[in-house]
Amino acid sequence: MHTTILVTGATGTVGREVIKQLSMLEDDIRVRAGVHSVITGENLKRLPGVEISEMDFENPESLHAAFTHADKLLMIAPFTDDQVTMEKTLVDEAKRTGVKHIVKLSSMGADEEPGILLGRWHREIERYIEDSGINYTFLRPTSFMQNFIEYDAGSIKQEGRFYQPTGEGKVCYVDARDIAAVGVEALLGEGHEGKIYDITGPEALSNYDVAQLMSEVTGKQVEYVDVPEPAAREAMLAQHVPAWMADALLELYGVYRNGNGSQATDTVAQLTGRQPHTMRQFLQDHQEDFS
């Protein structure tokens, strides 16, 4: 009998990679990509065994359709001011329709007290899932390597520089491909119910280290510029980032600046049987994004 897996946030960095990896597996896996609009999920249709389901949180019927006959849920939600409400709605629908297992993408340090806003929100949702009675697995990664593409590639190409307020703080950046691989194992493997997995890359790097690796891989000089927090906030507001989000991101950058994301774990190796990607491997694979 086949297993139907619903992936929300399917067009995001991790969701897209999870669907790609699931689509390459055996025929008894059916993958349903939950997207905000069918147009945004167009590229996912090309993957074998993937169906697209539009999910509009203001349209309960669209949620009912997405969850129909879904056995498992990989739950990813965007960082928005209604994230907690959105994810609780997903949990309620999962419970109503008999989903057997929720794998939630959370964040490293979600259970720290008092923690930062992003962590508190994730922990609130984690508790809601725990109280639902549905089997669960929580994935808590550090910062994605792919964020350097999404947020910094433009200035790297144009100026040979990227800007962040993280000082000399070191982070075990993790490749989204490795987060996805752990997620796939949690969905399809045995014994992952009730587990929380901290997911990191293999090495703690400062942004000065990352800039040096970028220079070596691309063959052009790349410089990291440490930005004071007030200037970083001003720049985000100028780019129309909401004030609450700018403050939340500065909290997260502060965690990294203080070195609190620098502890490596062996989760990827233990659950996938291979070592996680290094930053150098990631940059080599995506060299064209920075050159």
From TrEMBL:
It comes from the Bacteria. This is Uncharacterized conserved protein YbjT, contains NAD(P)-binding and DUF2867 domains. SUPFAM superfamilies: NAD(P)-binding Rossmann-fold domains (SSF51735). The lineage of its organism: Bacteria, Pseudomonadati, Bacteroidota, Cytophagia, Cytophagales. Residues 2-258 form the NmrA-like domain.
